[in-house]
Amino acid sequence: MPIIDILERNAALYGNDIALVELNPSILEPRRITWKEYELIEPRRPNYYRREITWKVFNEKANRFAHFLISRGVKKGDKVGILLMNCIEWLPIYFGILKVGALAVPLNFRYAASEIEYCVGLAEVSVLVFGPEFIGRVEELVDTIGNDRMLLYVGQGCPGFAESYDLLTANFPSNSPAIFLTDADDAAIYFSSGTTGFPKAILHNHESLMHACKVEQAHHGQTKDDVFLCIPPLYHTGAKMHWFGSFYVGGKAVLLNGVTPSVILDAVSSEHCTIVWLLVPWAQDILDAIESGKVSLSDYELAQWRLMHIGAQPVPPSLIQRWKKYFPNHQYDTNYGLSESIGPGALHLGVENIHKVGAIGKAGYGWESKIIDENGEIVPRGEVGELCVRGPGVMTCYYHDPEATAAVLSADGWLRTGDMAQEDEDGFVFLVDRKKDVIITGGENLYPVQIEDFIRSNPKVKDVAVIGLPDKRLGEIAAAIISIKEGCECSEQEMAKFCESLPRYKRPRKYIFADVPRNPTGKIEKPKLRKIYGGERLVEEQNKG
User: Fold this and answer.
1) How far apart are CA 376 and CA 313, in angstroms?
2) Structural domain ending residue among the three candidates 208, 230, 245
3) Cβ atoms within 10 A of the Cβ of 124, count?
4) Which distant-in-sequence residues (6+ apart) come within 8 Å of 360 by Cβ?
5) d(Cα 354, Cα 357) in Å, to the nearest integer?
6) What is the C-alpha to C-alpha distance for residues 401 and 526, in angstroms, rounded to an integer?
7) What is the pTM of this model?
8) How many angstroms separate the CA atoms of 41 and 50, rounded?
9) What digits encode the pLDDT tens for the residues 359-411?
10) Does position 47 have pLDDT exceeding 90, yes or no?
11) N or C: which end of the chain has fewer CB within 10 A?
12) CB 154 within 8 Å of CB 84
Protein backbone atom coordinates (compact mmCIF):
# COMPACT_ATOMS: atom_id res chain seq x y z
CA MET A 1 0.00 0.00 0.00
CA PRO A 2 1.16 3.61 -0.47
CA ILE A 3 3.04 4.98 2.53
CA ILE A 4 0.49 7.78 3.07
CA ASP A 5 -1.94 5.12 4.34
CA ILE A 6 0.30 4.61 7.38
CA LEU A 7 -0.07 8.26 8.34
CA GLU A 8 -3.86 8.06 7.98
CA ARG A 9 -3.88 4.92 10.15
CA ASN A 10 -1.69 6.49 12.86
CA ALA A 11 -3.93 9.56 12.99
CA ALA A 12 -6.99 7.34 13.40
CA LEU A 13 -5.49 5.01 16.02
CA TYR A 14 -3.17 7.33 17.95
CA GLY A 15 -4.54 10.77 17.13
CA ASN A 16 -3.78 12.42 20.49
CA ASP A 17 -0.38 10.80 20.98
CA ILE A 18 2.77 12.80 20.26
CA ALA A 19 4.20 12.02 16.83
CA LEU A 20 7.03 14.52 16.42
CA VAL A 21 9.12 16.68 18.74
CA GLU A 22 11.49 19.38 17.52
CA LEU A 23 14.33 20.06 19.94
CA ASN A 24 16.68 22.89 19.09
CA PRO A 25 19.37 23.93 21.56
CA SER A 26 20.74 26.62 19.26
CA ILE A 27 17.69 28.91 19.39
CA LEU A 28 17.99 31.23 22.39
CA GLU A 29 14.57 32.83 22.04
CA PRO A 30 11.42 30.95 21.04
CA ARG A 31 10.04 31.73 17.60
CA ARG A 32 6.48 33.01 17.60
CA ILE A 33 4.04 30.21 16.84
CA THR A 34 0.96 31.20 14.88
CA TRP A 35 -0.58 27.77 14.27
CA LYS A 36 -2.89 26.93 17.12
CA GLU A 37 -2.07 23.22 16.81
CA TYR A 38 1.55 23.82 17.81
CA GLU A 39 2.42 24.13 21.45
CA LEU A 40 5.51 25.80 22.81
CA ILE A 41 6.67 24.01 25.92
CA GLU A 42 9.11 25.51 28.40
CA PRO A 43 12.51 23.93 27.89
CA ARG A 44 13.72 21.54 30.54
CA ARG A 45 17.16 23.09 30.38
CA PRO A 46 18.22 26.65 29.54
CA ASN A 47 18.23 27.74 25.89
CA TYR A 48 16.30 24.74 24.60
CA TYR A 49 13.49 25.35 22.14
CA ARG A 50 10.89 22.61 21.87
CA ARG A 51 7.77 22.03 19.79
CA GLU A 52 5.59 18.97 19.43
CA ILE A 53 2.65 17.80 17.34
CA THR A 54 0.30 14.84 17.62
CA TRP A 55 -0.42 12.26 14.93
CA LYS A 56 -3.77 13.97 14.30
CA VAL A 57 -2.12 17.35 13.72
CA PHE A 58 0.65 15.79 11.64
CA ASN A 59 -1.94 14.28 9.31
CA GLU A 60 -4.05 17.45 9.18
CA LYS A 61 -1.01 19.55 8.27
CA ALA A 62 -0.14 17.14 5.48
CA ASN A 63 -3.73 17.26 4.20
CA ARG A 64 -3.87 21.06 4.27
CA PHE A 65 -0.66 21.34 2.31
CA ALA A 66 -1.96 18.77 -0.19
CA HIS A 67 -5.18 20.75 -0.72
CA PHE A 68 -3.18 23.94 -1.12
CA LEU A 69 -0.96 22.38 -3.79
CA ILE A 70 -4.00 21.05 -5.64
CA SER A 71 -5.55 24.53 -5.56
CA ARG A 72 -2.44 25.85 -7.31
CA GLY A 73 -2.61 23.27 -10.07
CA VAL A 74 -0.08 20.77 -8.71
CA LYS A 75 -1.10 17.31 -9.84
CA LYS A 76 -0.05 13.69 -9.78
CA GLY A 77 3.46 13.32 -11.17
CA ASP A 78 4.57 16.92 -10.51
CA LYS A 79 7.70 17.51 -8.41
CA VAL A 80 7.97 19.60 -5.25
CA GLY A 81 11.39 20.46 -3.82
CA ILE A 82 12.11 20.66 -0.06
CA LEU A 83 15.03 22.85 1.05
CA LEU A 84 14.70 22.94 4.84
CA MET A 85 16.79 22.28 7.90
CA ASN A 86 15.31 19.64 10.20
CA CYS A 87 12.18 21.13 11.72
CA ILE A 88 8.70 20.06 12.73
CA GLU A 89 7.25 21.27 9.40
CA TRP A 90 9.53 19.02 7.31
CA LEU A 91 7.64 15.74 7.48
CA PRO A 92 4.07 17.14 7.17
CA ILE A 93 5.26 18.92 4.02
CA TYR A 94 6.82 15.69 2.70
CA PHE A 95 3.65 13.69 3.26
CA GLY A 96 1.45 16.48 1.93
CA ILE A 97 3.33 16.24 -1.35
CA LEU A 98 2.85 12.47 -1.46
CA LYS A 99 -0.87 12.81 -0.75
CA VAL A 100 -1.26 14.79 -3.97
CA GLY A 101 0.45 12.02 -5.91
CA ALA A 102 3.29 14.45 -6.57
CA LEU A 103 6.95 13.57 -6.03
CA ALA A 104 8.86 14.91 -3.03
CA VAL A 105 12.36 16.13 -3.97
CA PRO A 106 14.47 16.71 -0.82
CA LEU A 107 17.56 18.90 -1.39
CA ASN A 108 20.87 18.88 0.47
CA PHE A 109 21.06 21.90 2.79
CA ARG A 110 24.75 22.29 1.93
CA TYR A 111 24.07 22.91 -1.75
CA ALA A 112 25.39 26.17 -3.14
CA ALA A 113 23.03 28.23 -5.28
CA SER A 114 24.42 26.70 -8.48
CA GLU A 115 23.82 23.17 -7.16
CA ILE A 116 20.28 24.04 -6.13
CA GLU A 117 19.66 25.36 -9.62
CA TYR A 118 21.13 22.22 -11.20
CA CYS A 119 19.09 19.79 -9.07
CA VAL A 120 15.85 21.74 -9.38
CA GLY A 121 16.28 21.69 -13.14
CA LEU A 122 17.27 18.04 -13.37
CA ALA A 123 14.29 16.90 -11.29
CA GLU A 124 11.88 19.29 -13.09
CA VAL A 125 10.75 20.81 -9.78
CA SER A 126 7.71 23.11 -10.16
CA VAL A 127 7.41 24.16 -6.48
CA LEU A 128 10.28 24.88 -4.09
CA VAL A 129 9.65 25.01 -0.33
CA PHE A 130 12.52 26.64 1.57
CA GLY A 131 13.39 27.98 5.02
CA PRO A 132 15.12 31.06 6.47
CA GLU A 133 18.61 29.59 6.20
CA PHE A 134 18.30 29.58 2.40
CA ILE A 135 16.92 33.04 1.65
CA GLY A 136 20.22 34.28 0.24
CA ARG A 137 20.83 31.27 -1.97
CA VAL A 138 17.27 31.19 -3.33
CA GLU A 139 17.31 34.96 -3.93
CA GLU A 140 20.35 34.48 -6.17
CA LEU A 141 18.24 32.19 -8.34
CA VAL A 142 14.99 34.15 -8.50
CA ASP A 143 15.66 35.40 -12.01
CA THR A 144 16.51 31.91 -13.30
CA ILE A 145 14.10 29.63 -11.40
CA GLY A 146 11.51 32.02 -9.93
CA ASN A 147 9.56 32.75 -13.12
CA ASP A 148 8.58 29.14 -13.77
CA ARG A 149 8.31 27.86 -10.20
CA MET A 150 6.28 28.61 -7.10
CA LEU A 151 8.51 29.61 -4.17
CA LEU A 152 7.08 28.90 -0.71
CA TYR A 153 8.77 30.15 2.44
CA VAL A 154 8.50 28.40 5.83
CA GLY A 155 9.07 30.70 8.80
CA GLN A 156 8.68 34.29 9.98
CA GLY A 157 9.64 37.27 7.80
CA CYS A 158 8.73 35.95 4.36
CA PRO A 159 10.94 37.57 1.66
CA GLY A 160 9.22 39.54 -1.06
CA PHE A 161 10.12 37.12 -3.83
CA ALA A 162 8.29 34.20 -2.14
CA GLU A 163 4.89 33.35 -0.63
CA SER A 164 4.30 32.42 3.02
CA TYR A 165 3.68 28.70 3.52
CA ASP A 166 2.27 29.34 7.01
CA LEU A 167 -0.34 31.86 5.89
CA LEU A 168 -1.34 30.14 2.67
CA THR A 169 -1.97 26.66 4.06
CA ALA A 170 -3.61 27.44 7.42
CA ASN A 171 -7.21 27.57 6.22
CA PHE A 172 -7.35 24.69 3.76
CA PRO A 173 -9.39 21.54 4.56
CA SER A 174 -7.83 19.08 6.99
CA ASN A 175 -9.40 15.98 5.44
CA SER A 176 -7.57 13.71 3.02
CA PRO A 177 -7.63 14.78 -0.64
CA ALA A 178 -8.27 11.10 -1.50
CA ILE A 179 -5.99 10.86 -4.53
CA PHE A 180 -5.81 7.25 -5.68
CA LEU A 181 -2.27 5.85 -5.53
CA THR A 182 -0.69 2.45 -6.04
CA ASP A 183 2.64 0.95 -4.98
CA ALA A 184 3.93 1.43 -8.52
CA ASP A 185 3.33 5.20 -8.53
CA ASP A 186 6.41 7.43 -8.37
CA ALA A 187 6.90 8.93 -4.90
CA ALA A 188 10.22 10.74 -4.50
CA ILE A 189 13.46 11.82 -6.10
CA TYR A 190 16.56 11.72 -3.93
CA PHE A 191 20.01 12.87 -4.93
CA SER A 192 23.16 10.83 -4.60
CA SER A 193 25.64 12.17 -2.06
CA GLY A 194 28.04 13.31 -4.75
CA THR A 195 31.14 11.82 -3.09
CA THR A 196 32.29 10.43 -6.45
CA GLY A 197 30.89 13.06 -8.81
CA PHE A 198 27.95 15.41 -9.39
CA PRO A 199 24.67 14.28 -7.79
CA LYS A 200 22.36 11.99 -9.75
CA ALA A 201 18.57 12.12 -9.41
CA ILE A 202 17.30 8.81 -7.97
CA LEU A 203 13.65 7.93 -8.61
CA HIS A 204 11.72 5.78 -6.10
CA ASN A 205 8.12 4.62 -6.03
CA HIS A 206 5.74 4.02 -3.12
CA GLU A 207 6.70 0.35 -2.90
CA SER A 208 10.28 1.43 -2.13
CA LEU A 209 9.18 3.72 0.69
CA MET A 210 6.91 1.09 2.20
CA HIS A 211 9.64 -1.52 2.01
CA ALA A 212 11.94 0.81 3.96
CA CYS A 213 9.30 0.90 6.74
CA LYS A 214 9.05 -2.88 6.88
CA VAL A 215 12.81 -3.46 6.73
CA GLU A 216 13.63 -1.07 9.56
CA GLN A 217 10.90 -2.41 11.85
CA ALA A 218 11.85 -6.03 11.09
CA HIS A 219 15.50 -5.36 11.90
CA HIS A 220 15.10 -3.36 15.10
CA GLY A 221 11.74 -4.39 16.52
CA GLN A 222 10.32 -0.91 17.10
CA THR A 223 7.16 -0.75 19.15
CA LYS A 224 4.69 2.01 19.87
CA ASP A 225 6.57 2.74 23.10
CA ASP A 226 9.95 3.35 21.46
CA VAL A 227 11.21 6.92 21.04
CA PHE A 228 13.50 7.47 18.06
CA LEU A 229 16.11 10.24 18.15
CA CYS A 230 16.63 11.60 14.64
CA ILE A 231 19.81 13.66 14.27
CA PRO A 232 20.92 13.39 10.60
CA PRO A 233 19.34 15.66 7.97
CA LEU A 234 15.90 14.56 6.77
CA TYR A 235 16.76 15.24 3.13
CA HIS A 236 18.87 12.07 3.20
CA THR A 237 17.43 8.56 3.02
CA GLY A 238 19.51 7.41 6.01
CA ALA A 239 17.69 9.50 8.62
CA LYS A 240 14.18 9.31 7.26
CA MET A 241 14.20 5.61 6.45
CA HIS A 242 15.42 4.72 9.95
CA TRP A 243 12.56 6.84 11.32
CA PHE A 244 10.20 4.93 9.02
CA GLY A 245 10.47 1.93 11.39
CA SER A 246 9.00 4.01 14.22
CA PHE A 247 6.52 5.66 11.86
CA TYR A 248 5.31 2.19 10.86
CA VAL A 249 4.22 1.40 14.44
CA GLY A 250 3.15 4.90 15.54
CA GLY A 251 6.17 5.59 17.75
CA LYS A 252 7.35 9.07 18.69
CA ALA A 253 10.36 10.72 17.04
CA VAL A 254 12.54 13.56 18.28
CA LEU A 255 14.12 15.80 15.62
CA LEU A 256 17.31 17.14 17.16
CA ASN A 257 19.26 20.08 15.77
CA GLY A 258 22.68 19.60 17.30
CA VAL A 259 25.44 17.00 17.27
CA THR A 260 27.67 17.77 20.26
CA PRO A 261 27.97 14.98 22.86
CA SER A 262 26.23 16.93 25.62
CA VAL A 263 23.34 17.89 23.34
CA ILE A 264 22.82 14.31 22.14
CA LEU A 265 23.00 12.83 25.64
CA ASP A 266 20.70 15.51 27.03
CA ALA A 267 18.13 14.81 24.30
CA VAL A 268 18.24 11.08 25.02
CA SER A 269 17.79 11.83 28.72
CA SER A 270 15.12 14.53 28.62
CA GLU A 271 13.00 12.91 25.88
CA HIS A 272 13.50 9.33 27.14
CA CYS A 273 14.81 8.15 23.78
CA THR A 274 15.23 4.41 23.32
CA ILE A 275 16.75 4.24 19.81
CA VAL A 276 19.53 6.44 18.46
CA TRP A 277 21.15 6.23 15.05
CA LEU A 278 24.61 7.78 15.03
CA LEU A 279 27.25 8.54 12.46
CA VAL A 280 30.78 7.39 13.25
CA PRO A 281 32.11 10.92 14.03
CA TRP A 282 29.32 11.56 16.55
CA ALA A 283 29.91 8.26 18.33
CA GLN A 284 33.63 9.02 18.46
CA ASP A 285 32.93 12.48 19.87
CA ILE A 286 30.71 11.05 22.61
CA LEU A 287 33.39 8.55 23.64
CA ASP A 288 36.11 11.20 23.56
CA ALA A 289 33.98 13.50 25.72
CA ILE A 290 33.39 10.71 28.25
CA GLU A 291 37.07 9.76 28.39
CA SER A 292 38.24 13.35 28.68
CA GLY A 293 35.77 14.10 31.47
CA LYS A 294 33.87 16.74 29.46
CA VAL A 295 30.64 14.84 30.07
CA SER A 296 29.63 12.56 32.90
CA LEU A 297 27.11 9.82 32.16
CA SER A 298 25.78 10.08 35.71
CA ASP A 299 24.30 13.47 34.80
CA TYR A 300 21.85 11.86 32.37
CA GLU A 301 18.95 9.41 32.49
CA LEU A 302 20.03 6.79 29.95
CA ALA A 303 18.69 3.49 31.30
CA GLN A 304 15.88 3.41 28.71
CA TRP A 305 18.32 3.72 25.75
CA ARG A 306 18.26 0.20 24.28
CA LEU A 307 19.70 0.44 20.74
CA MET A 308 22.59 2.32 19.19
CA HIS A 309 23.07 1.65 15.51
CA ILE A 310 25.39 3.09 12.90
CA GLY A 311 25.34 3.23 9.12
CA ALA A 312 26.38 5.29 6.09
CA GLN A 313 30.03 4.18 6.29
CA PRO A 314 32.31 1.37 7.46
CA VAL A 315 32.43 1.14 11.25
CA PRO A 316 35.82 0.59 12.95
CA PRO A 317 35.57 -2.44 15.29
CA SER A 318 37.65 -0.52 17.85
CA LEU A 319 34.88 2.09 18.08
CA ILE A 320 32.24 -0.46 19.09
CA GLN A 321 34.62 -2.09 21.58
CA ARG A 322 35.02 1.32 23.24
CA TRP A 323 31.26 1.94 23.08
CA LYS A 324 30.39 -1.32 24.83
CA LYS A 325 32.81 -0.40 27.62
CA TYR A 326 30.63 2.58 28.58
CA PHE A 327 27.25 1.26 27.38
CA PRO A 328 27.44 -2.49 28.07
CA ASN A 329 23.67 -2.99 27.92
CA HIS A 330 23.14 -1.43 24.51
CA GLN A 331 22.09 -3.50 21.57
CA TYR A 332 24.25 -2.63 18.58
CA ASP A 333 23.60 -2.93 14.86
CA THR A 334 25.08 -1.58 11.68
CA ASN A 335 23.16 -1.12 8.47
CA TYR A 336 24.24 -0.88 4.86
CA GLY A 337 22.44 0.71 1.99
CA LEU A 338 22.59 3.55 -0.47
CA SER A 339 20.14 6.08 -1.81
CA GLU A 340 19.64 3.88 -4.87
CA SER A 341 18.37 1.14 -2.53
CA ILE A 342 16.19 3.52 -0.47
CA GLY A 343 18.80 3.93 2.23
CA PRO A 344 19.63 1.54 5.09
CA GLY A 345 18.80 -2.12 5.44
CA ALA A 346 19.83 -3.79 2.19
CA LEU A 347 22.36 -5.52 4.43
CA HIS A 348 22.51 -5.42 8.20
CA LEU A 349 24.58 -7.02 10.92
CA GLY A 350 21.76 -7.86 13.34
CA VAL A 351 21.79 -7.15 17.07
CA GLU A 352 22.51 -10.83 17.76
CA ASN A 353 25.76 -10.76 15.77
CA ILE A 354 27.91 -8.30 17.69
CA HIS A 355 30.71 -10.88 17.58
CA LYS A 356 30.97 -9.99 13.89
CA VAL A 357 31.59 -6.28 14.43
CA GLY A 358 33.36 -4.93 11.37
CA ALA A 359 31.03 -6.71 8.96
CA ILE A 360 28.05 -4.97 7.39
CA GLY A 361 26.19 -8.25 7.80
CA LYS A 362 23.97 -10.26 5.51
CA ALA A 363 21.12 -9.45 3.14
CA GLY A 364 18.37 -7.64 5.03
CA TYR A 365 14.65 -8.31 5.27
CA GLY A 366 13.30 -8.87 1.74
CA TRP A 367 16.73 -8.30 0.16
CA GLU A 368 19.23 -10.42 -1.76
CA SER A 369 22.95 -9.78 -2.15
CA LYS A 370 25.87 -11.15 -4.15
CA ILE A 371 29.50 -10.24 -4.84
CA ILE A 372 30.63 -10.35 -8.46
CA ASP A 373 33.77 -9.94 -10.57
CA GLU A 374 34.26 -7.70 -13.61
CA ASN A 375 32.46 -10.28 -15.79
CA GLY A 376 29.41 -10.45 -13.56
CA GLU A 377 30.28 -13.86 -12.11
CA ILE A 378 29.94 -14.54 -8.39
CA VAL A 379 33.37 -14.62 -6.75
CA PRO A 380 34.44 -17.38 -4.33
CA ARG A 381 34.07 -16.62 -0.63
CA GLY A 382 36.99 -14.60 0.67
CA GLU A 383 37.72 -12.91 -2.65
CA VAL A 384 37.03 -9.24 -3.29
CA GLY A 385 34.38 -8.19 -5.79
CA GLU A 386 31.61 -5.66 -6.32
CA LEU A 387 28.61 -5.89 -4.00
CA CYS A 388 25.20 -6.10 -5.69
CA VAL A 389 21.75 -6.00 -4.09
CA ARG A 390 18.22 -6.78 -5.24
CA GLY A 391 14.87 -6.17 -3.58
CA PRO A 392 11.69 -4.08 -3.49
CA GLY A 393 13.65 -1.00 -2.41
CA VAL A 394 15.82 -0.70 -5.51
CA MET A 395 15.33 2.57 -7.39
CA THR A 396 13.22 2.76 -10.51
CA CYS A 397 16.03 4.57 -12.37
CA TYR A 398 18.27 7.59 -12.46
CA TYR A 399 15.76 10.20 -13.57
CA HIS A 400 16.22 11.12 -17.24
CA ASP A 401 19.56 9.30 -17.39
CA PRO A 402 19.12 5.93 -19.10
CA GLU A 403 22.85 5.53 -19.72
CA ALA A 404 23.75 5.88 -16.04
CA THR A 405 20.82 3.62 -15.11
CA ALA A 406 21.95 0.87 -17.46
CA ALA A 407 25.46 1.03 -15.99
CA VAL A 408 24.27 0.01 -12.51
CA LEU A 409 20.83 -1.62 -12.84
CA SER A 410 20.39 -4.93 -14.66
CA ALA A 411 17.25 -6.08 -16.43
CA ASP A 412 16.59 -8.62 -13.67
CA GLY A 413 16.75 -6.00 -10.91
CA TRP A 414 20.32 -6.33 -9.56
CA LEU A 415 21.88 -3.03 -8.49
CA ARG A 416 25.65 -2.62 -8.70
CA THR A 417 26.56 -0.65 -5.59
CA GLY A 418 30.09 0.44 -6.57
CA ASP A 419 31.32 -0.94 -3.22
CA MET A 420 34.02 -3.58 -3.10
CA ALA A 421 33.35 -6.31 -0.56
CA GLN A 422 34.21 -9.86 0.49
CA GLU A 423 32.28 -12.59 2.28
CA ASP A 424 33.69 -14.62 5.16
CA GLU A 425 33.22 -18.33 5.85
CA ASP A 426 29.99 -17.63 7.77
CA GLY A 427 28.42 -15.60 4.97
CA PHE A 428 28.95 -12.17 6.56
CA VAL A 429 29.87 -9.39 4.15
CA PHE A 430 32.73 -7.00 4.87
CA LEU A 431 33.13 -3.74 2.96
CA VAL A 432 36.58 -3.27 1.50
CA ASP A 433 36.14 0.14 -0.15
CA ARG A 434 34.44 2.14 -2.84
CA LYS A 435 35.38 0.79 -6.24
CA LYS A 436 36.59 4.23 -7.31
CA ASP A 437 38.63 4.70 -4.12
CA VAL A 438 40.78 1.61 -4.60
CA ILE A 439 44.45 2.61 -4.84
CA ILE A 440 46.61 0.78 -7.40
CA THR A 441 50.24 1.09 -6.38
CA GLY A 442 52.94 -0.79 -8.22
CA GLY A 443 50.32 -3.22 -9.55
CA GLU A 444 48.90 -3.98 -6.08
CA ASN A 445 45.33 -3.10 -5.08
CA LEU A 446 45.13 -1.21 -1.78
CA TYR A 447 41.78 -0.86 -0.05
CA PRO A 448 41.81 2.34 2.04
CA VAL A 449 39.18 1.19 4.55
CA GLN A 450 41.47 -1.60 5.76
CA ILE A 451 44.33 0.86 6.32
CA GLU A 452 42.00 3.41 7.95
CA ASP A 453 40.69 0.81 10.41
CA PHE A 454 44.25 0.00 11.46
CA ILE A 455 45.31 3.64 11.92
CA ARG A 456 42.15 4.40 13.93
CA SER A 457 43.27 1.83 16.49
CA ASN A 458 46.01 4.30 17.50
CA PRO A 459 44.71 5.95 20.71
CA LYS A 460 45.86 9.39 19.50
CA VAL A 461 43.83 9.28 16.26
CA LYS A 462 40.42 10.94 16.08
CA ASP A 463 39.76 10.37 12.36
CA VAL A 464 41.63 9.29 9.24
CA ALA A 465 41.20 9.11 5.49
CA VAL A 466 43.51 7.26 3.12
CA ILE A 467 43.60 8.45 -0.49
CA GLY A 468 45.64 7.75 -3.59
CA LEU A 469 47.97 10.43 -4.90
CA PRO A 470 49.78 10.34 -8.27
CA ASP A 471 53.31 8.92 -8.33
CA LYS A 472 55.56 8.72 -11.42
CA ARG A 473 57.10 5.40 -10.44
CA LEU A 474 54.25 3.48 -8.79
CA GLY A 475 51.27 5.14 -10.46
CA GLU A 476 49.73 5.97 -7.10
CA ILE A 477 50.81 6.02 -3.48
CA ALA A 478 48.70 5.81 -0.35
CA ALA A 479 48.54 9.01 1.69
CA ALA A 480 46.95 9.13 5.15
CA ILE A 481 45.24 12.34 6.23
CA ILE A 482 45.05 12.07 10.01
CA SER A 483 43.11 14.13 12.54
CA ILE A 484 44.68 13.89 16.00
CA LYS A 485 42.62 14.01 19.21
CA GLU A 486 42.58 17.24 21.14
CA GLY A 487 45.52 17.46 23.55
CA CYS A 488 47.59 14.84 21.72
CA GLU A 489 50.68 15.25 19.57
CA CYS A 490 52.00 12.93 16.89
CA SER A 491 54.78 13.11 14.31
CA GLU A 492 55.14 11.51 10.89
CA GLN A 493 57.96 9.35 12.25
CA GLU A 494 55.79 8.13 15.13
CA MET A 495 52.89 7.25 12.81
CA ALA A 496 55.22 5.54 10.34
CA LYS A 497 56.59 3.45 13.21
CA PHE A 498 53.03 2.55 14.28
CA CYS A 499 52.19 1.43 10.73
CA GLU A 500 55.13 -0.98 10.58
CA SER A 501 52.68 -3.63 11.79
CA LEU A 502 50.98 -3.40 8.39
CA PRO A 503 52.33 -5.38 5.42
CA ARG A 504 54.91 -3.22 3.69
CA TYR A 505 52.81 -2.62 0.54
CA LYS A 506 49.87 -1.40 2.66
CA ARG A 507 51.82 1.21 4.60
CA PRO A 508 51.04 4.82 3.65
CA ARG A 509 53.92 6.56 1.89
CA LYS A 510 52.80 9.96 3.13
CA TYR A 511 51.27 11.24 6.41
CA ILE A 512 49.38 14.53 6.56
CA PHE A 513 48.02 15.86 9.86
CA ALA A 514 44.86 17.81 9.10
CA ASP A 515 41.07 17.76 9.49
CA VAL A 516 39.14 15.01 7.72
CA PRO A 517 36.10 16.53 5.96
CA ARG A 518 32.84 14.59 6.04
CA ASN A 519 29.51 15.35 4.40
CA PRO A 520 26.25 15.65 6.44
CA THR A 521 25.72 11.88 6.25
CA GLY A 522 29.16 11.15 7.69
CA LYS A 523 30.94 10.03 4.54
CA ILE A 524 34.52 11.15 4.03
CA GLU A 525 34.78 13.64 1.19
CA LYS A 526 37.70 12.00 -0.58
CA PRO A 527 37.39 13.93 -3.87
CA LYS A 528 37.88 17.12 -1.85
CA LEU A 529 40.97 15.66 -0.17
CA ARG A 530 42.45 14.53 -3.48
CA LYS A 531 41.96 18.01 -4.87
CA ILE A 532 43.54 19.64 -1.82
CA TYR A 533 46.56 17.37 -1.71
CA GLY A 534 47.38 17.03 -5.38
CA GLY A 535 45.13 14.36 -6.80
CA GLU A 536 43.17 16.45 -9.33
CA ARG A 537 44.09 14.05 -12.14
CA LEU A 538 42.59 11.13 -10.23
CA VAL A 539 39.39 13.04 -9.57
CA GLU A 540 38.98 13.74 -13.29
CA GLU A 541 39.59 10.10 -14.17
CA GLN A 542 37.08 8.87 -11.60
CA ASN A 543 34.40 11.30 -12.76
CA LYS A 544 34.89 10.05 -16.31
CA GLY A 545 34.55 6.47 -15.05
Assistant:
1) 25
2) 208
3) 16
4) 314, 334, 335, 336, 347, 348, 349, 421, 429, 430, 431
5) 5
6) 25
7) 0.82
8) 6
9) 999 999 999 999 999 899 999 999 999 999 999 999 999 999 999 999 999 99
10) no
11) C
12) yes
